[in-house]
Amino acid sequence: MTITSPSSSPTYTAPGSSLTLQGTASDNVGVTQVTWVNSRGGSGTATGTSSWTASAIALQLGSNVLTVTARDAAGNTATANLTVTLSDTTSPTVAVTAPAAGTTVTSTVGVSGSATDNVGVAGVQFKVDGGNLGAEVTTPPYAVTWNTTTTADGAHVLTAVARDAAGNMATSAEVTVTVANAVANANPQPIDVTSPVISKVSLSVTSSGATIGWTTNEPSDTQMEYGLTGSYGSLAPLNTALVTSHSQVINGLAPNTWYHFRMRSRDAAGNLGVSGDYKFKTRAH
What we know:
Elements: E1 2-5, E2 11-14, E3 18-24, E4 31-38, E5 43-45, E6 51-58, E7 62-72, E8 77-86, E9 93-98, E10 104-105, E11 108-116, E12 121-128, E13 131-132, E14 142-147, E15 154-164, E16 169-171, E17 175-179, H1 181-186, E18 198-205, E19 210-227, E20 234-235, E21 239-250, E22 258-266, E23 272-274, E24 278-281
Parallel strand pairs: 2-8, 10-17
Antiparallel strand pairs: 1-3, 3-6, 4-5, 4-7, 7-8, 9-11, 11-14, 12-13, 12-15, 15-16, 15-17, 18-19, 19-20, 19-21, 19-22, 22-23, 22-24
């Protein structure tokens, strides 16, 4: 049993959070199976035997001992080890995506951003004039609600700070907006009584879950109802961030089973938009 790639040496420093191993194995009768296990979690079966490949092995920060085992039909085994170190010194990238620079804001607005990292984003903290705006957001979508009535009228700077698990941090470019609640109060706008419009529904299904996406024509929260009938009976957790692009995951579903679902989004004024009934069938395997 021999590991030949990404290195034939006993140690290797990985540039990213996943790795593909390749190697060879031989036996006087024949190799029947090659498996791998990571000391930091994860295991699987390689493709091929005498010449094998183990793809997309997930790595954790620090030292990962990868053990590859070849077996023959009689149960005899041989192993090879590779110690892989994942050192993350790359900072995330982050940007404030809404509101746009130069926007005049009043009342309550949604502040959202985007963030990526070579290993994974641990959290995004939005800021107004350098002070924290709400709590750190640890999962996408990265968004918070800003009650601008607690901020003085005038120009203010929005930023977002992203961090990864290794402690690398990055700050977005500044986005300057103008708070103008005094003007808004002097010229009150009509009361919003219109519910968000739900559209552009997307669906991805596995044997035990589904990911549903949709859009709304105004910032609103995110929640789904689902169940075995059109009466639903289950509610996914409410995501209170006001966004226009929505996504929600439901797990723990039975395989090869039909489910009904509908989407719910409520705007800042409390108007609730509810979609029509949709159905999907989970995969058999």
